[in-house]
Structures are given as structure tokens and as C-alpha cells.
Design goal:
alpha/beta, Rossmann fold, five-stranded parallel sheet, 5 strands, globular
Length: about 130
């Protein structure tokens, strides 16, 4: 019996970034779901099936870090990579202290994001959930 490919969820209010990330993640063999906001993601049926999460830091409503913290409070410890066009060392430190797997500044190298995703999935399989 084959295991289903991991589901990577993308949460970003920038449609072009969401679509670019979807294409990249699909091109390396993962399943992908995308949402335009943290609230949309939380309402989706994909939360419980998500193996890894990529979320923008700055979004209207709940931020990417806020989403990670909210999921943690709910007991849904989804390995998360935060991406941002507005890097901030204090936010990065808080994010990493909160258990975020990666914090990447836009524009980032595709290989750096994929390395973070692989790390997130390894973390998940080793009992990170």
C-alpha cells in the first residue's frame, strides 16, 4: 500500500506568490492546497491533513506567526515555514522560539524553501506532531 504524498498548504494573500509556490511545490512531487488568508485556511478541511505549512508573515487579519501559534494552541503542531517581504530580526527570533522550522526573506532561493520543506517533513515524521 503506497502512502499518500505529503500535503503542503500555502497561506499567502499575494495571489502571484501563492501560484508560484503551488507550482514549485507540485513540481517536486508534493500535493498542494492554497489559501489567501489564515482564516480561510483554518476554515478549510485541509488543516488536519497538512504535513507542512508555508505562510506569509504579513497578511491582513491573522499573520503567519499568529496562524502558527493558533494551530499550536489547538494542538495541531504543523511544521511551518514563514516567508516575508519585510524581514524583521525580532519577528524571526519570536517565530523560531515558537517552533517555526524556517523563516525566509523574499525573494528567497527555491532550494532554500525546499530544504525547509524537507526539514519540516522530517520533523513531522520524527514525532513533531
Amino acid at each position: 500500500m503506497r502512502r499518500a504524498k505529503p500535503l503542503i498548504s500555502i497561506v499567502d494573500d499575494d495571489k502571484s506568490m501563492r501560484e508560484a509556490l503551488e507550482g514549485l511545490i507540485k513540481s517536486v512531487g508534493y500535493r498542494v492546497e492554497a489559501a489567501a488568508s489564515a482564516e480561510e485556511f483554518l476554515r478549510s478541511r485541509h488543516v488536519r491533513r497538512t504535513s507542512g505549512l508555508i505562510a506569509d508573515v504579513q497578511m491582513p487579519g491573522m499573520t503567519g506567526l499568529g496562524l502558527h501559534r493558533h494551530l499550536s494552541v489547538l494542538g495541531k503542531l504543523i511544521p511551518t515555514v514563514l516567508i516575508t517581504a519585510y524581514p524583521d530580526d525580532s519577528v524571526r527570533e519570536r517565530a523560531l522560539a515558537a517552533g517555526v522550522i524556517g523563516y525566509l526573506s523574499k525573494p528567497f532561493e527555491e532550494d532554500d524553501l525546499l530544504a525547509c520543506i524537507r526539514s519540516a517533513l522530517t520533523h513531522d515524521r520524527s514525532g513533531g506532531r
